[in-house]
Write a structure and sequence with these properties.
52% helix, alpha+beta, 6-stranded mixed sheet, flat, 710 residues, 6-stranded antiparallel sheet, 17 helices, Beta-Lactamase
């Protein structure tokens, strides 16, 4: 039955994929056989409607796509247009060489321009083949020269359009990308120079939210500083007021903001030791100059010095000269002490504007990171199993940092073993590591568990000198790696491993947040283990590891409901150790527990994967067998009885052998509810007890039939 379903689905898929091409070929055959030149009748009209409907459907499918279309879609669309065009030429011109024949080249150029190369060339080949077939079959032409010429022109049109259009599109894309990259790089340079972004984390700033924050912060600084410079220039009758800021390398100054009446400003970066401003950087003191001559070099002017008086104030932040505020006049009027104080206040204002914006950025980042951690805590708190906790933790980490590989290892303190419990990667490089175990070694994971500290220190992975898991479990060669310890009350539970294919992926901007996330993940992992332990204790017998009575009753209700719904057989077996009180009284309860565990082991070995076994109380066990009739239950009971009879238990007073009695009842003969089935099996068990023990008895409608031991 399954094979028939699969075959029908396969045929349906083939039909859905190929019916368009089949219809296109059928329409082409109709045109080749002279249908386009035949008198107009019902058949041509119907086929014309089929052509139009198929064309509209393919056009709608093409327009809905956001990426490249499949080969079949592009080919069918071009082939349909070619069939329609040839049919129209034959209908209105009676030939393919009439006044409208150049439309074929327009079609070829259109298909080559808007489709991928492979289907475009296939459509051109289709156009040439269809043209040849029509000329030979319909028009009776046999000039291979004309056909070769037309085919050459068609392929030439297609290749020219394909090459020229795609080259132009590629040029526009490259130009636009370069323009965007230049603008982004300028933004990052400004932000780094104001220390709004951390150096070395350039790649991490590609996130939209980070770039918007950096852009708004840089613009805010520019507006504030420009307002101060414009105010100074107008109030002090200045020629130029300019804030020069050190580049990220620290070796050059460049114009950060400017208010000037000059047209000869030199906006390229210049060396900090160049011109009259070098003393400001070197001495970290203000410089007030007058009687300047044209031969003096003021670096931010492109030509000879046009001013006669100049004041330059260093902008110092944390003891480091970050920039210079320079003001000059055309007239030879020295700056007064009052003006000097005003300029110094303006320099402090510019610095405060930058510092305030820096604090704002830090607060905004902190708010964003807190939001991410809050969402992570919610997701981790809702996860109840270890698997859900791990998946929630990896998803939360992806919000904080960009990475391609993630894995979680669990540390077993008792066995001193690590186990990879989860592994994900975009290319599937590490999925095979799930379930792998390795001993404590000198790898990064083992060192992180031992030292309780993230590694590598700078987040850079060197595969030549570093091992992640163990030498027999290789890790992909990627430049960025971070192994975080999962600590709960100082006790290591495992590690969270993140890997990225770009450098500096785990810098100072994301690393602290990832460490906080790892602590949340460890707490949730510990809680999930506790929940699992409580669930196990609530449903499992502590001595044997089998289900307890409560769990068995839940399973029984579901099994009886399934048997009722689907009309299946269901058997219940109850087994009880014979003379068990005598075993306890003679050998002690410790030996009695050994005997109980021995019977539990036998039940686990002999049952099927779908059977359910539970300790119902004391020395009594229940087995629930799906799709098992009375004969199957009897065979299972016999195997259990024989296995226990052959088992010898060692005791201080010598070897001990015990037997058991078994009773069984089968659905629906013994009853249609769990209570009726259990009662029937219990009656059969007592019948075994009353008739000599060490036997299996099946419930019967009128009397209990006994199956004696062989």
């Amino acid at each position: 039955m399954d094979s028939l379903v699969r075959a029908s689905l396969l045929l349906r898929r083939i039909f859905r994929m190929g019916y368009g091409t089949a219809l296109t070929c059928g329409l082409a055959a109709y045109v080749v056989l002279g249908g386009a030149t035949a008198p107009l009748g019902p058949l041509p009209v119907v086929l014309g409607l089929v052509w139009a409907l198929l064309l509209v459907k393919r056009l709608r499918a093409k327009l809905r796509l956001t990426g490249d279309a499949k080969f079949a879609l592009d080919f069918e669309l071009g082939a349909l247009l070619a069939v329609g065009l040839d049919a129209a030429l034959l209908r209105f011109d009676g030939t393919l060489s009439g006044r409208f024949s150049p439309a074929t080249y327009v079609l070829v150029a259109l298909v080559a321009s808007f489709g991928r190369p492979a289907p475009g060339l296939a459509v051109v080949a289709w156009v040439v083949a269809l043209d040849a077939a029509i000329r030979h079959k319909t028009l009776g032409e046999s000039s291979w020269e004309a056909l070769a010429t037309q085919a050459g022109f068609a392929f030439a049109f297609a290749l020219l359009n394909l090459l020229l259009l795609r080259a132009e599109v590629a040029r526009i894309r490259i130009t636009a990308r370069a323009r965007v990259e230049r603008e982004l790089e300028r933004l990052r340079d400004d932000a780094r120079s104001y220390r709004l972004l951390g150096a070395g984390d350039v790649a991490a700033q590609k996130e939209d939210a980070e770039e918007r924050l950096a852009r708004s912060s840089v613009e805010e600084i520019h507006q504030s500083v420009h307002y101060a410079l414009e105010l100074l220039r107008r109030c002090l009758d200045l020629h130029t007021a300019v804030l020069l800021w050190r580049t990220d390398s620290g070796t050059h100054l460049r114009i950060s903001e400017l208010s000037t009446a000059s047209d000869e400003i030199h906006d390229a970066p210049f060396s900090i030791g160049d011109g009259v401003l070098a003393a400001v950087i070197a001495k970290k003191e203000a410089v007030l100059l007058s009687n300047l001559r044209p031969s003096y070099k003021v670096p931010y002017y492109a030509s000879a010095c046009p001013v006669r008086a100049l004041a330059a104030i260093p902008v110092i932040d944390d003891g480091i000269v970050r920039g210079v505020l320079a003001l000059d006049r055309v007239e030879n009027r020295a700056f007064t002490p009052h003006e000097h104080e005003l300029i110094a206040q303006a320099a402090r204002y510019c610095l405060r504007a930058i510092q305030n914006e820096r604090v704002f950025v830090q607060l905004e980042r902190a708010k964003v990171e807190q939001g991410k951690l809050y969402r992570a805590a919610q997701a981790l708190g809702a996860a109840m199993s270890e698997k859900d906790v791990v998946h929630a933790g990896v998803r939360a980490a992806r919000e904080i940092a960009s990475f391609e590989l993630a894995a979680v290892t669990i540390w077993d303190e008792t066995t001193k073993m690590h186990e990879v419990c989860a592994a994900r990667s975009e290319g599937g490089e590490i999925e095979d590591l799930v379930g792998q175990r390795f001993k404590q070694n000198t790898g990064l994971v083992s060192m992180v568990v031992t030292n309780r500290f993230p590694l590598p220190y700078k987040g850079e992975f060197d595969p030549a000198h570093q091992v992640v898991l163990s030498k027999r479990l290789p890790w992909p060669n990627i430049p960025s790696l971070l192994v975080l310890p999962l600590l709960h009350h100082g006790r290591p539970l495992g590690t969270l491993i993140l890997g990225a294919k770009r450098r500096h992926a785990f810098g100072d901007t994301v690393r602290p947040t990832l460490e906080v996330l790892a602590s949340h993940l460890a707490v949730s992992l510990s809680n999930a283990r506790m929940v699992h332990k409580l669930e196990t204790m609530a449903t499992t017998d502590g001595l044997t590891g089998l289900l307890n009575k409560r769990a068995m009753l839940d399973q029984a209700a579901a099994k009886v409901a399934a048997a009722t719904r689907f009309g299946r057989k269901l058997s219940v077996l109850i087994t009880d150790i014979d003379w068990f009180k005598k075993v306890n009284d003679t050998h002690g309860h410790d030996i009695g527990d050994v005997v109980i565990k021995g019977l539990a082991d036998i039940l686990e070995r002999t049952k099927r994967a779908t059977d359910v076994v539970a300790r119902f109380g004391g020395e009594e066990f229940v087995i629930l067998c799906e799709q098992t009739d009375e004969a199957g239950a009897a065979l299972l009971g016999e195997r259990i009885r024989e296995e226990l009879e052959k088992t010898v238990f060692n005791t201080p007073s010598g070897p001990l052998s015990v037997t058991c009695s078994v009773g069984s009842a089968t659905f629906p003969e013994a009853g249609r509810t769990w209570e009726e089935l259990f009662k029937g099996a219990d009656e059969a068990l007592y019948c075994s007890k009353r008739t000599g023990r060490n036997r299996v008895t099946a419930w019967a409608p009128v009397s209990i039939s006994r199956i004696k031991a062989g």
